[in-house]
Task: structure prediction
Amino acid sequence: MKTTFIQPVRRALFLSTLVAGSFLLSNCSSDDDAPEPEPTAPDFEEVADLPPVEDEDPQITEPETGSIEASEETENIVTDVLNAGDTGSISDATKESLREVGEFSQQLPASVQEKAANLDEAAIDAILNQDEELDADLAAVRDQLEDLPEEISKLLPEINFTADLEALKAMGTKTSGNKTNDFGDLDPVSQVTGSCGELTRAAYDDKIADLTAQMETNLSTIEANYTRRLGEADARYDDRLETQEEHYATNKSDIKATLTDILAAAEKATSIGETALATQLKQLTLLYALDARAALEEWNVLVLELLDNRMEAEKATALEIKETKEDQVAADFETSKDQADEILNEGLANCHNQGSGN
Result:
């Protein structure tokens, strides 16, 4: 009897195929259902913050404005005459100096010599008053005083030219036009899509916004310091003008005192019979007053110009500091932004490698 096993074999093969197919389907289903990894943004914390502004105030030096110096030789003459006593003991040096004055005065118009002979304190006040114009004769004499011989010019007051006044003509105000700083393009480096790219872009935007806020804080500090320094320069200028006004009054008062002393010496000379010396002393008083008027005017004009130049120089320094600090803030911002750009580009590249974004 012949026995066959075909049916059992076929059944076994069929069952094996079903098991294998089920296994394959099970594996495919597991791969498809696995969750995608959560996208992450790069860390921008390593980007350096902007350093705070270091903006120390510049050193301020007060200008040296000088003064009108009295003639030491004239003071000696006055002292010599006032101390002559009843004997009329006046030094030969005093007599020689006054003789030089007399010879020069004889060349002046008769009207000027008459004014010298009748000189009193009221006439002196009128000469020293810058608001009143000199008459033509006195104005002409004042102009001649610029070319006096040494023997007479040493008897007159002179301006004490300080280094600031000497350098006045060489000084120049430093100006600068309004300057604007380009702080770069604050837009992100590139546009990306997809969740990974969007997270990266958002983190970058947050960092740039933070850096921008730091930059604006620093710029506000710089601007506030600049505005304050301009105001302080104006205030110093006003104070210096007030000081110069007082200084001018003091110098004028000192000159008036010297002129009064010369007149007193003339009266003393008259009282001891030295009428020629008395005339020469009055002539010296007139020349001294005219020269003092010119010196006061020239000195005051120079000082006012010096004060104006100093104020402008201080404001120019404030502007220079402002622009230098703004340039530094711009450079600091760009350095940090470059770091952020580099991290952004690396993050976008990683997004692309993960299959997210462009």
The beta strands are 67-69, 158-160. Residues 188 and 205 are 7 Å apart (CA to CA). Residues 1-6, 12-31, 172-177, 183-192 have pLDDT under 50 and may be disordered.
